[in-house]
Amino acid sequence: MKEKFESSTYSTVMDDDGVNYREIAAVLSEMGYKMNHSSARNYVLRIMRRFADEIVNEWDMSISDEDLLKIVKIPQFQQAICEILQLIEAESETKNLRNRK
User: Fold this and answer.
1) What is the SS3 assignment for 34?
2) Is 11 helix (H, G, I), strand (E, B) or coil?
3) Which of 36, 46, 93, 99 is deepest in the core (most CB within 10 A)?
4) In this predicted structure, what is the pLDDT of residue 54?
């Protein structure tokens, strides 16, 4: 079983279903996108920041940029966003199946 890894400068979500940045980079490279693990990390953190910004705006919260960056690096935040996206995808697939009938 993979373990969770977290520190103040690097974090990733790793559990039975998770992947690390090296694995993400390898998959993207196989798909034709030249990528290394640090670039994969930067892309993940950038998009996580966009999600966090939207949440903060929606909830009308006031959080410093420094604190927001700390939040997006937390593996549990990244996992929560992943689970939300998976639920949205499953719901979309269910609607598509209903529309085909």
Assistant:
1) coil
2) strand
3) 36
4) 96
Q: Residue 17 contacts by C-beta under 8 Å, 6 or more apart in sequence?
A: none
Is the CB of residue 3 less than 8 Å from the CB of residue 22?
A: no
Rounded to two decimals, the pTM is 0.72
Report which of residues 93 and 46 the model is more confident about: 46
By CB atoms closer than 10 A (0-12, 13-18, 19+), residue 70 is middle
Is 77:71 a contact under the CB 8 Å cutoff? yes
Non-local CB neighbours of 91 within 8 Å, separated by 6+ positions: none
Cα(44)–Cα(73) distance, rounded to whole angstroms?
A: 9
pLDDT one-digit tens code per residue, 31-62:
999 999 999 999 999 999 999 999 999 999 99
In one letter, which amino acid is 99? N
Q: How far is CA 84 from CA 6, 16, 28, 48, 99, in A?
A: 21, 18, 22, 12, 23
